[in-house]
Amino acid sequence: MNHWTAVAGAAVFVWLGMVLAISFLEAPLKFRAPGVTIALGLGIGRLVFRALNICEAVLAVIIAVALALGTAGPGVLAAVLVAAAALVIQVLGVRPALTRRSDAVLADPTQAESGRSHAHYVYVVLEVVKVVALLSSGVLLLNI
Question: Is Transmembrane tagged as a keyword (predicted)?
Fold first, then answer.
C-alpha cells in the first residue's frame, strides 16, 4: 500500500464514521432528549446535516485525489463513485424536499403529526447505500 492509498483509506473510514455517528446515532436521538421540541430538533438537524454534507464533499475530493495519485482497483473506484453519487443525490435531489417539509412543519407544527416525509425515507436509504459503499471501498483499500 502506498501513502496515497493509505490517505484514501483513512478518508473513507473518517467519512464512514461521520455518517454512522450523525445519521444513525445523533439524528434519531436528538428528538428523544428532554426539552427538545420539533422546531429545535429540525433547526439542529439542518445545521448538522449541512455541516456533514460539506465535510463529506471535502472527504470525497480528498479520496478522489488520493486515488488518482495512488493505486486502486476498479472495485474501489466503483464503490467510491457509488458513495459520491449517493451524496450528490442527497444534496441536490433530496435535501431541497426535506427543507420544504421542515419549513412546513416549522410554520405549522401540526404538519409533524402526519409522520415522516417520503423524502426522509429516500435520504435514509441513500445513507445506507453510502455506508455499504464506504465500508466496501475501505475494506478493499486495506487489501491493496
Answer: yes
